[in-house]
Design a protein that fits this description.
It contains 16 helices and 14 strands. It is α/β, with parallel strands linked by helices. It has 2 domains: 174 residues, Aspartate Aminotransferase, domain 1 (Alpha-Beta Complex), CATH 3.90.1150; 252 residues, Aspartate Aminotransferase, domain 2. The strands form 5 sheets. The chain has a 5-stranded mixed β-sheet with strand order 2-8-7-6-5, with helices on both faces. The protein starts with 24 loop residues before the first helix and ends with a strand. Bound molecules: ligand F0G. The site of ligand F0G has 15 residues, from helix 4 and helix 5.
């Protein structure tokens, strides 16, 4: 039969390959038990298709690798810093750049600069490291995302949006003096890679401007958010994603950035701001915690890779293929009736573990158990994004119980082929067909901070 539509493919071809190891079911059963049923504790050698994260796992281009060779490893004033600064100004538009070793370095610094003990930071859903740095600085995160974001089945096109009434009431309740900034992510990782709309952001800007409150953007996956705006928001179809991204930044006062995602680099990050006083204080702190203000914990070659990566990240063809691959996997799972977060997000497909494993209550960590089961089935490594990731309430010590109990199949950029996606989908289907056999878990080791990274479990 003739195809009814024209296919498209990735705008690159493959020049270098990295062989992966195949394992047996028995080897994987042992490996995941030894890892305490935590996919973070597996050796990557034992993983066949690694969908743990899209962070630092991208394939760099030949242009980025060439840039690595012209790394200027001077302690101070590396030419790669100046290139990065130029690129950040061009694509994000902020006046001042403070390089950091990765995203959480920037989160640490901005939290220390802006947050006083007792402050409240409203945001469109928490992110693990972002919230922890806000708390360590003495602040308290308050979720002001729209309620649809907590419902995996809601088809709202912009589930990253802020609930404007809720934001207003948080400001009324605490007073603007207690709110150093609104913390906005584009896209929202924990909601399933969901975007915020330009319209909503403009309104958040109006409200915050009225009260003299700043907006700090988490720009980690800004290019993907801009792509969804181009695809879904009325009147945005003709604009290049780079232009949409610039407009998003222009509606905020600064950003933290993990260059390990959008920017196609294996390590790196930055803080960027417009206010010279905040810049001055951040530049003082960066030398304490990260490195001199012209490298911030990155090698010169890393800064070059990030600068070149940003230039590639905002190309429409790239981002269409990147998000397109995620949609390919998600649509396949959905056709087979597997419960996933809808709409499909920008950086991964999120399995709804509550619906997938209805026999397991949240207390026995269904998403953690499901990620382990998928690994055991096929060697595909995913990540828990549910009650384990949500950690404990810092005041009461009780477990936070998020509405979303998810397993994230995160797609690295430019790394895997469509055939890999087929293997992943078939493995998820195989586990789904035998889902009653997946057993719950008991936590036997719990770290104090960001417990999901290192916690250990036993099967019940
Ligand atoms: N903000 C968001 C939205 C992130 O997804 C991450 C990291 C960070 C900040 C922190 O950046 O890792 O460079 O320090 N997310 C990774 C993930 C770890 O797998 O989602 P970092």
């Amino acid at each position: 039969m003739k195809p009814t539509r024209r296919s498209w493919a990735e705008p690159f071809k493959i020049k270098v390959v990295e062989p992966v190891k195949m394992t047996t079911h028995e080897q994987r059963r042992r490996a995941i038990a030894e890892a305490g049923y935590n996919t973070f504790l597996l050796r990557s050698e034992d993983v066949y298709i690694d969908l743990l994260t899209d962070s630092g796992t991208s394939a760099m281009s030949d242009r980025q690798w060439a840039g690595m060779m012209i790394g200027d490893e001077a302690y101070a004033g590396s030419r790669n810093f100046y290139h990065l600064e130029e690129v950040v100004k061009a694509y994000y538009g902020y006046r001042y750049l403070i390089p950091t070793h990765q995203g959480r370095g920037a989160e640490h610094i901005i939290s220390r600069v802006l947050i006083k003990p007792g402050d409240v930071i409203p945001g469109n859903m928490y992110f693990t490291t972002t919230r922890l740095h806000q708390e360590l600085a003495g602040g308290r995160f308050v979720d002001v995302i729209i309620p649809e974001a907590h419902d995996p089945a809601s088809l709202h096109p912009f589930k990253g949006n802020v609930d404007l009434d809720r934001l207003e009431s948080v400001i009324r309740e605490h007073g603007p003096q207690k709110i150093p900034y609104v913390s906005l992510a584009a896209t929202v990782n924990m909601a399933g890679g969901q975007p915020i709309s330009l319209e909503n952001l403009r309104k958040v800007r109006e409200i915050t401007a009225r009260h003299g409150i700043r907006i700090i953007l988490d720009a980690t996956r800004l290019a993907e958010n801009a792509y969804f705006i181009q695809q879904r928001e009325p009147g945005q179809q003709e604009r290049p994603i780079a232009e949409i991204a610039r407009e998003i930044c222009s509606l905020t006062d600064g950003c933290t950035m993990s260059a390990k995602k959008d920017a196609l680099a294996n390590i790196g990050g930055f803080l960027a701001v417009n206010d010279p006083e905040i810049y001055d204080e951040a530049r003082n702190l960066v030398v304490v915690f990260e490195g001199l203000h012209t490298y911030g914990g990155m090698a010169g070659r890393d800064m070059e890779a990030v600068a070149r990566g940003i230039e590639e990240a905002f190309q429409d063809d790239h981002i269409r293929a990147r998000v397109g691959q995620v949609l390919y996997l998600g649509e396949k799972l959905r056709e087979w009736g597997i419960p996933i977060v809808m709409p499909i997000g920008g950086h991964g497909v999120f399995l709804d573990a509550k619906a997938f494993l209805p026999h397991l209550p949240q207390e026995v960590y269904p998403a953690q158990a499901l990620a382990a089961a998928i690994y055991e089935d096929s060697g595909v490594r995913a990540m828990e994004r549910g009650i384990v990731s949500a950690g404990r309430n810092r005041e009461t010590g009780e477990e936070n119980k998020p509405k979303l109990e998810l397993v994230r199949l995160t797609i690295p950029r430019r790394v895997y082929t469509q055939a890999h996606m087929d293997v992943v989908a078939e493995s998820v289907l195989a586990v789904y067909e035998e889902r009653e056999r997946v057993r719950g878990l008991r936590m036997v080791y719990e770290p104090r901070y960001l417990r999901f990274f290192q916690a250990r479990f036993e099967q019940l």
